[in-house]
Amino acid sequence: MRLPEGASGFRKIAMKKTTIKPVARRPRADAKRNRERILEVAKQVFTRRGAEASMDEIAKRAKIGPGTLYRHFPTRDELLAAVYITEVEKLAEAQRKFSAELPPVEALRAWMLVFIDYLAAKKIIAPALNAMTGGPSRVFRQTNRVMEEAAHALASRAVDNRDLRPDIDPMDMLRAIYGVSSAGSSEDWPAKARQFVEILIQGSRP
User: What does the pLDDT look like over 147-187, one tens digit per residue?
Assistant: First the structure.
């Protein structure tokens, strides 16, 4: 049947107006679990094998197919960077949690203890991370900002609550802890660093 003149154009417009765009789906729960498992297993494998660890071994230990691994992380460098960034994100999560649940100076103390755990993980993964193509400078720049924001947020609360002196730079406190980790080659450096946290806090009191 022949449409009346102009009807064809009207029909196209009507169809265009009624077109519904697909709604972006959230990542499936199993995809999220796969990613988390990959990152945890990759951290362990990179620690043992170094930067050239087999991607197939990581997939096997994570109990997924190689295709699933490469969909999440197309290259080894991307996986290495993601492992390190995940460790830093734990610091940001801890800052939010402690700020919501603990008094200011207690939140700072608890977070600095988590920072020591981060340093321990970094010492383990650093050799593999340094072997990334082009070096890890891009990753470090991104993650340093996360640490600085978390440290300053916690210290500001403690200063406002008169738990710390206003001239205290929280990054100096982190550098001091990092110095303990760098100087201590023995396995007991984390215990010494935890003791040093209390010294730093007491020395920063008004």
Answer: 899 999 999 999 999 999 999 999 999 999 999 888 756 67
pTM (predicted TM-score):
0.72
Per residue in 105-154, pLDDT tens? 999 999 999 999 888 888 877 777 777 766 677 777 777 888 899 999 99
Write down all domains in the chain, each with its CATH number in brackets.
29-74 (1.10.10.60), 84-206 (1.10.357.10)
CA distance 174 to 141: 16
CA distance 156 to 160: 6
CB 62 within 8 A of CB 69: yes
| Rounded CA separation 51/63 (Å) | 21
- Among 158, 147, 123, 156, smallest CA distance to 43 is for 123
